[in-house]
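can u do me a favor
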């Protein structure tokens, strides 16, 4: 029989009052077990008219202030977040039969944080941030490749490629974080942390 925590859930839920601590534990397990991109997440945004959109992005950092990813600010998600900062994230780790859903609001990271991450990227990735007008229509693939070559010539010093002003990071500050474990016969185990008006995390069991 599987061991349980104090709420009667599987022991993997532990007994923690801080969801960031539990996220760190689950994420560490995912990095050991998930074959490709354990930091991949589905990011859901919506336009100011409420039309939803979802895509996969990569988590590039997290702490008690939130979860960070980077993108072109003029992309579809960037434009949507400028007008509607409410968003959701979903991690699904098939190898662990677990998922985590996060809901919150996003703000841009500070310039130093964005610069530090940008400068850690491969040269071609930094050039791509300049060359790609993310989410815009291309006449053909060669248009992008030609832009890449233009910026390779402009920034031929691989150690000195400035960060474009249209490229930065977003940090999602969560209002709720739900941890989900697959169960037999669809009787899943779900634990939701909700931030109250005093920014204290309250734990709630959810029906599958």
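np, heres the sequence
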């Amino acid at each position: 029989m599987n061991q349980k925590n104090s709420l009667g859930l599987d022991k993997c839920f532990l007994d923690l009052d801080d969801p960031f601590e539990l996220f760190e534990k689950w994420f560490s397990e995912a990095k050991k077990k998930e074959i490709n991109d354990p930091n991949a997440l589905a990011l859901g945004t919506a336009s100011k008219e409420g039309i939803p959109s979802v895509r996969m992005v990569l988590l590039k950092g997290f702490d008690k202030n939130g979860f960070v990813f980077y993108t072109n600010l003029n992309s579809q998600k960037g434009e949507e977040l400028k007008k509607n900062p409410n968003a959701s994230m979903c991690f699904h780790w098939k190898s662990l039969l677990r998922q985590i859903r996060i809901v919150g609001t996003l703000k841009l990271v500070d310039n130093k944080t964005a610069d530090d991450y940008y400068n850690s990227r491969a040269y071609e990735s930094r050039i791509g941030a300049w060359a790609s007008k993310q989410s815009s229509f291309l006449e053909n693939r060669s248009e992008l490749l030609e832009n890449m070559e233009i910026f390779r010539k402009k920034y031929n010093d691989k150690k000195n490629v400035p960060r474009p002003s249209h490229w930065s990071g977003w940090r999602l500050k969560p209002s709720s974080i739900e941890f989900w474990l697959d169960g037999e016969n669809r009787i899943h185990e779900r634990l939701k942390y909700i931030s109250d008006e005093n920014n204290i995390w309250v734990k709630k069991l959810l029906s599958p």
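Residues 188 and 208 are 5 Å apart (CA to CA). hope that helps!!
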